[in-house]
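Narrative of activities, Objective 1.

The group set out to show that a structural description can be obtained from nothing but a protein's sequence at a throughput compatible with the screening campaign. Below is one input-output pair from the validation batch, recorded exactly as produced.
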Amino acid sequence: MKEASAAAMEKSSSAGVASSRAAMELQRLVKAIVEEEEEGDGKSVETYEEASRALSALKDLSFGTNGSRKQRDGAVPEHFLCPISSEIMRDPVVLSSGQTYDRPYIEQWLSSGNRTCPKSQQVLTSLTLTPNHLVRAMISQWCSKHGMALPPRNGNNLDGALVTADECAELDSLLKKLSSSSSSEKKLAAKELRLRTRLQSSSRTLVGRNPDALPKLLCLLSSSTLDAGLQEDAVTVILNLSIEDGNKKSVGENAEAILLLIEALTTGINMQTRGNAAAALFTLSSLDSNKTKIVQLGAMEPLVDLLEHGSLSAKKDAGSAIFNLCTLRENRAVAAGEGVAGVSLRLMKQGLLVAESLALLALLSSYQEVAEELAEDGGVACLLRIVREARALGTRRTRRWFCTRYAWTIGGS
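Output recorded for this entry:
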């Protein structure tokens, strides 16, 4: 009896390990699909096929060959649950980190200003959300097998966002008040729009699709009598709108919107406004066409200035925007010319934004003038110090490798 029990435990353990490996492989492939679709290199079809095979393997391990879930209590499989809400996912989407979340919850996380993956804490290189059709298919199949159905959604559906008639009417009313002759009414409307577009994907979608919304916000920002609160609210509403994938193109194609965000970077009445303007440029720059326009319109210089002189949160927003812009190769020379490397080195010497600064240096490491600038400003000593501290703290090997490699590069320049 004991032998049978031990054999069963060993078999269960082996199955668990195999299932874990299959899940990790599937996650790796899903991340690869996201990266390949962003790069547009045409290889994602092969990766989809690999992911399909990994999905089949994971399904066999999880459900068994006869398709029935081998669980005593019939609980929902853990990988069907959103890591944020712990509820079964209705609309699973993949972040650039490769982790999958339910769309409403990850959108709320991002709209709160977070720029990391909630589960892995990895800094996100893009805020693009890619539908995870593989996991969605598994969830649908599991629900069908167990006689379950996802709770029905109330209201109309607008590209996945829930919309009610009352919400439409309320948002229309708020947008009209942005043009009110009453200063207090205008301020209250902007503040309410800021709150709604931060919390509700449906509000971001509706406001973004209203042809009068962006012009009204830009009119506020171009006003000569703009006060600090109204400027901050208007910039933040544009930031919130830009989080929604469907709005990135329309906002990014509006040159006046980009120019006013750049102006807010430079002359923002308070630091929160300047940081939110940088965050808006970061989210808009997930599209390559926007990356080009943002730099052409002159955003790099004020972003570098904010990276050096802003508050810590503003520095982070500026650094994220610069990094995203520099993923487009032609923007790197502009960043190098504006002194990004020197600013990054000074931040690292202060122990600030070390990971972000290293990421920027990695993008610019091929420029000889960058290597020479770092060599003259004590870059070798700084990087070697980071290597020693990283080794002592057991920090990721990749950071130590990069510092050692880069210190060698600039030391020999």
